Amino acid sequence: MTETRLEALRARIGMTTVGDWLEVTQAMIDKFADATGDHQFIHIDPAAAARTPFGGTIAHGFLILSLLPHLASTARGALITDEQVKLGVNYGGNRVRFVSPVRSGARVRGRFRTLDIIEKNPGEYQQRMEFVVEIDGQEKPAMVAEWLVLAHF
């Protein structure tokens, strides 16, 4: 990787991209409950969940977190993409917070801001991003986190 390429990658710092809206359906929530074994009534029982402060079923926080790859794929420019990138992998997350519940039927989208890019090893760069999941029509987000991705050149 040339110094020019590293400079180009670092030019992304501070860049914000926003993805497309995605509806979080009850079917998605039910499938996630089956996949994880988390069948708490606030997720899968509309009648019982209606009697809670949520007023209906809500998505699992970890379901919202697991939407990160899809939400990033619709936010053009969120991830390091280049014809020379051989592989990109999730490296982890920092400070994940589930701020607001996502009701069944709500639409969410990802907002990504590159915080830094560092060289971990020759040909391997770590991108650290702020990842915010917005809920359509709500001021408070569903989730705020930092996401780490490794790009291998």
Describe the protein in words.
27% of the residues lie in helices and 35% in strands. It is of the alpha+beta class and 153 residues long. It has one domain (3-24, 60-152): Hotdog Thioesterase (Thiol Ester Dehydrase, Chain A), CATH 3.10.129.10. The protein starts with a helix and ends with a strand.
Summarize the structure.
The chain is of the alpha+beta class. It has six helices and six strands. Helix content is 27%, strand content 35%.
Topology:
Elements (H helix, E strand, L loop, with lengths): L2 H8 L5 E3 L3 E2 L2 H11 L4 H4 L1 H5 L10 H6 L1 H7 L12 E12 L8 E15 L2 E12 L7 E10 L1
Antiparallel strand pairs: 1-4, 2-4, 3-6, 4-5, 5-6
Oligomer: single chain
Order of helices and strands: HEEHHHHHEEEE
Q: So what's the overall shape? A: elongated
CATH fold type: Thiol Ester Dehydrase, Chain A
How large is the count of helical segments? 6
* Proportion of residues in helical segments: 25-40%
CATH top level assignment: Alpha Beta
CATH H-level superfamily title: Hotdog Thioesterase
Number of strands: 6
Radius of gyration: 18 Å
Mean pLDDT: 91
- Percent in strands: 35-45%
N- to C-terminal distance: 8 Å
The CATH architecture assignment turns out to be: Roll
Helix vs. strand class:
alpha+beta
Q: Note the main sheet.
A: 6 strands, antiparallel
List the main descriptive attributes of the protein structure presented here.
153 residues, alpha+beta, Thiol Ester Dehydrase, Chain A, six-stranded antiparallel beta sheet, 6 helices
